[in-house]
Amino acid sequence: MSNQAHRNPLFQLNDFSFFYQDQAEAVINQLTVSLYADEVTLLMGASGAGKSTLALCLNGLYPEAVEGTTKGEILFQGRATQDYAKGKLNQKVGIVFQDPESQFCMIRVEDELAFVLENMAIPREEMYMRILTALKQVGMQDFLYHKIHDLSGGQKQKIALASVLLMEPDYLILDEPTANLDPVSRLEFIETIMRLQKELQQGVLVIEHQAEDWVDYADRMLVLNHASQVVIDDQPATVFSAYREELHAHHIAFPPAYRKELEQALPAIHEYDSAPIMEVDQLAFQYKKQSILNYVSFSIYPGELMAILGENGAGKSTLLQLLTRLKQPQDGQITLHQKNLNAWSEHELRKRTGFVFQQPEHQFIRDAVYQEITFGMQLNGMPAKQLESRASALLKLLHLEKHQARNPFMLSGGQKRRLSVATMLDETPDLLFFDEPTYGQDHQTTKELLDIIHNLREQGTAVMIVTHDMELVAKHCQRAVVLNEGGIAFDGAPDYLWEQTPLLNKARLRSPYHKRFSSKAAIVP
Ligand SMILES: Nc1ncnc2c1ncn2[C@@H]1O[C@H](COP(=O)(O)OP(=O)(O)OP(=O)(O)O)[C@@H](O)[C@H]1O
Ligand SMILES: Nc1ncnc2c1ncn2[C@@H]1O[C@H](COP(=O)(O)OP(=O)(O)OP(=O)(O)O)[C@@H](O)[C@H]1O
Q: Where does the secretion signal sit in this chain (predicted)?
C-alpha cells in the first residue's frame, strides 16, 4: 500500500466511464484507480453502485457483451483491454460471479472443467490431474461426474471457483463468491484463495457486502459511491475505524468487530399457543437413491421468524421446494391451515404463501419491472386504482422506482432480489419462504428488507428463511432448525444452538462473532 507509487499497476483505470445502452447516465463515472498484483483489494459500495459492472469491464467481457459504451481507458499490464485478442483477457483475469450458473456451459462437472482446459490448449493427459487438484482445492472431489444442474447453490459456487482456479489467472475477481457457502466452507474458501494468492502472487479483487471474513486478509479497501467513484481508499482496519460516517452514508455494513453496540436479539412474536399455519409430518424425500430428507416433522406458527440452517447440500432449498409444492415428497404429509397442501388450488396457495428464491431471476416472467410487480395483482383481479397505488408503494419501499420500465434480468443482483420480494407482497401472505434474504444487499437494503419481514410478522405472517448468515440468525430469529444428514439435528432458540459446539462443527456452522469473542465484542470505543 504505502509503496504503491513505486510499483507498476496491473490495472490502470484512467477516467473510465461505462454506459449501458438503454441509459443516459453513466453507471461508472470517470473512475481513476490502480490495482496491483500481489494485493488483495476489498471493493464495497451500495447495491447498484456498479461493482459487478466494473468487474465485467476489468476482464474485457464488457462493453462488448452488452453493447455498452465506454469513455476513458482501462490498461491491463500496460495495454488497453480492448487490444487483447478475444478470449485472452478473461484467461488472465478470472471472475467468480455472483450467480455461478451464468458461467457454466456444460452439463457435467467433469466436462465443464475439461472445457476450460481445452480452451487453454492443455494436453488431454494432463487434464484429469489438474481437474482433480482444482476440485480438491474446493472440497468437491466427489462430484466429478455429477450434473451441475443437480448441485446445491453452494456446491455450484465451489465448481465455479474450481473452474477459475484451473486457469491460474494473474488477477482474480470474486463477485460475492461466498454468499451461498455454509460458514465453514466460507472460511475454507477464503483460506484457499489466500493460499493460492500467495503461491501464485495473484492480485485479488473481492466484491462483498459483508466484509467480516475478509477484513484480516485484505491489504486495501475501496468504497464506491453511487456514481461508481472511489470515495475511500485505505487499509480495511483504518477504513472501519476512521471513516465511520462515510461508510454509513454509502450503506456499507460494519463487520461485527467494528460495531459499536452489542447486537440485541429482538423479542419473540411467535404464538405457539395458537394453531400452527403449517404442519410437516414425517416428510421424506430422495433424489434417485440419495436420501435428502429422512422423515422430518415440525410445525410453523403465526408470527414466527424461523431459520433453516445446515451445510451446503444439507437439503434446505429442497425442503423449501417441498413446502411450497414445487416438489412432491415420497412420503409424509404437509398441511396448510389443517388442509393437505395438495388440496389447495394453485391460486389460493400462491395468495397465502410467498417464496423468494435463491436465484431471483428464476421466478421472473415479465419483461418490465412494473409488469412483474403487478402480475400477481392482476391475476387476483385487483381493481386498477388499488393496483396502481400498491405497485407504486412497493416500488418505493424496495427502491425500484427508477427501474420500473427496465427488464428484470438487467437489474443488479441486489435489485433483482428486492424485485422478487416485491412480487410476493401484493397481498400479505400467511407464510413467506425466503432463501438467503440478505444475499447481495448492502447495509441499508438489508435493514429495510428485515423491517419488511418484521412488519409482516407483526401482522401474523410466519417467515421461514434459509440462510448461512449467523449474525442474522442471532439478531433476528427466535427459532433455528438445523438440517444434518437428512434429519433435524436441532430445533430451538439460536442462543441455545451457539452452545452446541459438536453439533455446530458437524453441521459446518459457526456461532456469531459476539459469541465467539464475547470478551472482545465491544472493542470499538
Ligand atoms: N445489463 C444491464 N443493462 C442495463 N443496466 C444494467 C445492466 N446490468 C446492471 N445494470 C444497472 O447498472 C447499475 C449497476 O449494476 P451492478 O450490477 O454493476 O451493481 P452492483 O454494485 O454490483 O450491485 P449489487 O450490490 O446489487 O450487486 C444498476 O442500477 C443496474 O440496474
Ligand atoms: N435435481 C437433483 N437431482 C439430484 N440431486 C439433487 C438435485 N437437486 C439437488 N440435489 C442434491 O440434493 C442435496 C440437497 O440440495 P439442496 O439444494 O436442497 O441443498 P441446500 O441445503 O439448499 O444447499 P446450499 O446451502 O448449498 O444451497 C445436494 O446434495 C444436491 O447435490
A: none
- The rounded distance, in Å, linking the Cα atoms of 102 and 82 is 23
Cα torsion for 61, 65, 70, 72, to the nearest 10°? 20
Cβ–ligand 1 contact at 50 (below 6 Å) = yes
Q: 124 — phi, psi (to 5°)? A: -50, -45
C-alpha cell at 171: 488477477
Q: What is the pLDDT of residue 261?
A: 57
Nearest 5°: the CA angle 233, 39, 20 is 60
> For position 267, what pLDDT does the model report?
52
Q: Which residues of 475-503 are buried (b: 16+ CB within 10 A; e: fewer)?
A: bbbbbbbbbbebebbbeeebeebbebeee
pLDDT exceeds cutoff 60 at 92:
yes
> What interhelical angle do 109-119 and 153-165 show, nearest 10?
20
Distance 435 CA to ligand 1 centre (A): 21
**Is 359 in contact with 430 (CB distance < 8 Å)?**
no
The complex's ipTM works out to 0.89
For ligand 2, whether the C-beta of 316 sits within 6 Å is yes
Ligand closest to Cα of 288 equals 2
Query: At 423, phi and psi to the nearest 5?
Result: -70, -20
Instruction: List all residues 6 or more positions away from 7 whose beta carbon is below 8 Å from its beta carbon.
Output: 36
Q: Ligand 2 centre from 253 Cα, in Å? A: 30
Rounded Cα distance, 346 and 83, in Å: 54
Is 445 touching ligand 1 by the criterion CB < 6 Å?
Answer: no
- Does residue 360 have its Cβ closer than 6 Å to ligand 1? no
Residue 519: CB partners within 8 Å, gap ≥ 6?
A: none
Helix runs in 76-123, H state only: 89-92, 109-119
In this structure, which amino acid lies at residue 176? Answer: E
Strand partners, 301: none
Per-residue pLDDT, 47: 86
Q: DSSP readout, 22-53? A: T-SS-SEEEEEEEE-TT-EEEEEE-TTSSHHH
- For residue 61, pLDDT over 90 is answered with no
Q: Does 63 sit in the ligand 1 pocket, CB within 6 Å?
A: no
Q: Of the residues 287, 308, 327, 464, which should be mutated to test ligand 2's pocket, given the most ligand atoms within 8 Å of the CB?
A: 287
Q: Is the distance from the beta carbon of residue 314 to the nearest atom of ligand 2 less than 6 Å?
A: yes
d(CA 350, CA 316): 20
Cβ(179) to ligand 1 under 6 A? Answer: no
Question: What value does the CA radius of gyration of the chain take, rounded to a whole number of Å?
Answer: 23
- The torsion region of residue 327 among left (phi > 0), alpha (psi -120 to 50) and beta comes to beta
Q: What is the mean pLDDT of residues 187-212?
A: 88
Residue 218 φ/ψ, nearest 5 degrees = -75, 140
Distances in Å between the Cα of 441 and the Cα atoms of 39, 117, 196, 437, 503 are 25, 34, 28, 8, 29
